[in-house]
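Query structure, 251 tokens:
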């Protein structure tokens, strides 16, 4: 079935929620194999291994503290994020806990039907050990792959694509999540637009809380130019499309 365009139409969500979904006709019920849980890196690409998550390298921060202090912040010190800290944030938002089988991967965030439709792109400005460029996280490998290093003004492009929100270009790293709807549609058909939106909230809240443990902060962004962000990432806006952004910086 064609992928759902989850970000068009003023009343698209209410219309789809009201509609009856025939779950007997999903690709899963037809016996089709599920889409892979991770988009393959480009042929010949070099993977950049990330340090494994080490609790001893992350400051002690209770869950209560993280919840109490969690807030959206748009002003950052300019201090770089370290590679172990970035590794921790990626683990907290999309890290793999266990691979049950090719169709099901348990992660650090919940996802409807264990479908996990997201890919995580990183617009890196100041991360120790990484050149400024666009990367993508490979959760099954806990590694990064370089997507683009040919963007002359990555920070400026991010600001332009987010309707002039300057803090997006001042962050150490901006998390950009895309959805591959077919992963969720395999089980939920047209109902996928609802659960993908819910799943995105789970992921971003984990980022907010994890930032508290590294003296950093974020501010989720949903106001962006779909065409500009998708073009920056090199995704087609249909089979894969941007759904959320979150700049991260030290505070």
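Result returned for the query:
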């Amino acid at each position: 079935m064609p992928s759902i365009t989850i970000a068009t139409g003023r009343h698209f969500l209410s219309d789809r929620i009201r509609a009856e979904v025939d779950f007997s006709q999903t690709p899963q019920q037809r016996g089709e194999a599920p889409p892979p849980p991770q988009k393959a890196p480009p042929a010949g690409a070099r993977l950049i291994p990330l340090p494994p998550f080490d609790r001893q390298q992350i400051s002690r921060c209770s869950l209560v503290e993280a919840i109490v202090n969690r807030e959206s912040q748009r002003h950052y010190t300019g201090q770089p994020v370290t590679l172990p800290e970035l590794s921790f944030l990626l683990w907290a938002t999309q890290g793999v806990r266990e691979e049950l089988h090719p169709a099901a991967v348990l992660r650090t965030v919940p996802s409807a039907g264990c479908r996990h439709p997201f890919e995580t792109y990183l617009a890196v400005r100041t991360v120790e050990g990484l050149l400024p460029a666009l990367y993508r996280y490979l959760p099954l490998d806990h590694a990064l792959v370089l997507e683009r290093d040919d963007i002359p003004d990555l920070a400026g492009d991010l600001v332009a694509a987010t309707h002039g929100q300057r803090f997006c270009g001042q962050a150490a790293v901006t998390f950009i999540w895309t959805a591959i709807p077919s992963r969720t549609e395999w089980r939920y058909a047209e109902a996928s637009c609802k659960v993908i939106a819910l799943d995105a909230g789970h992921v971003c809240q984990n980022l907010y809380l994890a930032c508290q443990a590294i003296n950093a902060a974020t501010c989720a962004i949903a106001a962006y130019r779909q065409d500009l962000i998708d073009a920056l990432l090199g995704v087609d806006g249909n089979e894969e499309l941007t759904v959320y952004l979150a700049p991260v910086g030290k505070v």
